Amino acid sequence: MRFLRYLIFAVIFSLSSLTSASAQDISLQQFSSGAPPEYGLTAKSAILIEASTGRVIFEKNADVHEYPASMTKMMTAVLSLEMTNPNDIVHISDEATNVDGSSLYLEKGDIMHMDELRQGMMLVSGNDAAVAIADAIGGTTSAFVDLMNKKAQSLGAVNTHFVNPNGLPDPNHYSTARDMAKIAAYAYENEDFRKIVSAKEKEIHWLTPDKKMVFENTNHLLWNYPYANGIKTGYTDDAGGCLAASATRNGVTLIAVVMHTEDGQNRFSEAQELLDYGFKNVRMQPGYKKTDLMQSIHVHNGKTAKINVVPQSDISYPLIDGESGTSYSIKVNLPQYLEAPVKTGDKVGSVDIFYNNNKVGEVPMTADRSSGTGFNLESLCYALYDSITSLFATA
């Protein structure tokens, strides 16, 4: 027993100098916020945010329920990206071909790859394609809608409720400008999503029948606004004109959402007006480089005993010109240790970004190397050390 006690204390003291993987708070310089001018928008609700942090630059009735129309398809697209493979085969059913409104001109018995169907849906806002995707993933449209609502809640879009995957009007199908911006910002983090929504036109291929059709994007800003790179249009008589528009200029990426404009053209001019305002008044201040926040973490039962984790990207903060009192801070969240196996690029934690103590963004922390399952004496010592420190922490 005396020998075991000496061994335990030796392990503790030999490892006590290791960097802790617990969360830390890092406060930044203080800045103050300036209020943007009012706009003569016909949109009943609107919002402008900086994409990487979600900071709100302008808003008008941003929490009022509105019909989102085909902006709904942002959620359909991002779920399909997360839950399917590009070459998955989709068989088109009667349910999809009988949907009203904008169409990819699908016919019963058509067969397509998922990536072609998804691209076609986002280009021409095909309601039929959205239903086909929903059925392929959920088995039924209603089951897929349940997934949509769960995802919306997880993203903080708490004033959103979907009843279909395409945005056709229904009293129980609603969202807000703020929630649409949250969904758009989340989707925009996905590189494949960005490629889809930035395409002006694309040739879409069918497997059965063997045919090709070229479709143009319904988002006119891609042609008329040099900084535009997405995202999704929407229009019905009940919803009016809707648009989630993204653009990048001088290292600043903004997302503008307008809902229920007076007509289908106003959505483009009003979104552009908001984006222009943002680019004139917002600048990004460098916060941290990825290497500044690199930390090491123990791996239990692994061939490699310790790996480094780093943010996926450098961290910057949007500042409105003239402000001198806004508080940004970050919190690095990591578990005490990892269990093997760990793969390079695995998300193992996050850097949470706060603005005035409210979380506005998150950058994943990822593993910089792999560690397969296996025996390693150093890993065993780390496991013993972590078990002992956990006991003391809970005592």
UniProtKB/TrEMBL annotation:
**Where does the record place a coiled coil?**
none
User: InterPro entries, per this entry?
Assistant: Beta-lactam/transpept-like, Peniciliin-bd_prot_C_sf, Peptidase_S11, Peptidase_S11_C, Peptidase_S11_C_sf, Peptidase_S11_N
Q: Which domain of life is it from?
A: Bacteria
The pathway it acts in is: Cell wall biogenesis; peptidoglycan biosynthesis
Where does the record place the Peptidase S11 D-Ala-D-Ala carboxypeptidase A C-terminal domain? 279-373
Question: Which catalysed reactions does the entry list for this protein?
Answer: Preferential cleavage: (Ac)2-L-Lys-D-Ala-|-D-Ala. Also transpeptidation of peptidyl-alanyl moieties that are N-acyl substituents of D-alanine
EC numbers on record: 3.4.16.4
Q: Which Pfam families match?
A: PBP5_C, Peptidase_S11
- The main enzyme category here is hydrolase
User: Which Gene Ontology MF annotations are present?
Assistant: serine-type D-Ala-D-Ala carboxypeptidase activity
Q: Which residues form the signal peptide?
A: 1-23
* Alphabetical keyword list: Carboxypeptidase, Cell shape, Cell wall biogenesis/degradation, Hydrolase, Peptidoglycan synthesis, Protease, Signal
Q: What does this protein do?
A: Removes C-terminal D-alanyl residues from sugar-peptide cell wall precursors.
Q: Which family does it belong to?
A: Belongs to the peptidase S11 family.
Spell out the protein name for this chain. Answer: serine-type D-Ala-D-Ala carboxypeptidase
Which organism is this entry from?
Answer: Pectinatus haikarae
